[in-house]
Write a structure and sequence with these properties.
Elements lengths: L2 H26 L12 H20 L6 H30 L4 H14 L1 H8 L3 H9 L7 H13 L2 H17 L5
Helix pairs in contact: 1-2, 1-3, 2-3, 2-8, 3-7, 3-8
């Protein structure tokens, strides 16, 4: 197996285990992991990414790191963790504890109502359409919708730009080419 892929899978698995442990601990202390302590996964992702790049540089590639190697390792770790965490959330909500879904839906509805005027203005819709299509439609949410929402939050919203920046900066500063 390719060295980059092997390191990425190992550190991705460790980061995934840490994200799942955070989820389970948050749930065990009686909080909803989708509402409280939701951003604790960000430092876990950062530590996993930087740790994988450092490990690759010092222990696999013997103190040598090209920029593309660091970016490849970091990006693979990031994608691995986010996708499998989304799969974990889907399986957990579908088969283990679907009761976490209702408080999350209520929180999303409250958030949408809080920003109702901004959403109506941006989407150019009436208030009735807003209530019907946005707020009440959340009542029919399924576990797959929440899992996809979690993956999108971690992949496409500003937090990933931070993680991509971490990947690039750590790869740039840690690179060393022996001649």
């Amino acid at each position: 197996m390719n060295k980059i892929l092997r390191v990425s899978l190992v550190f991705g698995a460790v980061g995934l285990a840490a994200c799942i442990a955070n989820f389970m601990i948050t749930r065990a202390i009686g909080l909803n992991p989708f509402i409280e302590f939701h951003l604790v996964d960000v430092p876990i992702l950062v530590v996993s990414i930087v740790g994988a790049i450092l490990f690759y540089k010092y222990f696999v590639n013997f103190n040598e790191l090209h920029l593309w190697q660091g970016i490849a390792v970091g990006f693979l770790v990031y994608i691995f963790i986010v996708n499998l965490y989304g799969l974990f959330i889907f399986c957990f909500l579908e088969y283990v504890d679907p009761s976490l879904l209702q408080p999350y839906i209520k929180a999303l509805q409250a958030e949408q109502i809080k920003y109702k005027l901004d959403i109506i203005k941006q989407l150019d819709i009436t208030e009735d359409e807003f209530m019907k299509n946005r707020v009440l439609a959340l009542n029919t949410s399924k576990p797959k919708d929440i899992a996809i929402n979690e993956m999108v939050r971690k992949l496409l919203i500003p937090i990933p730009f931070f993680n991509i920046l971490v990947i690039f900066i750590s790869s740039l500063f840690l690179r060393k080419i022996n001649k």
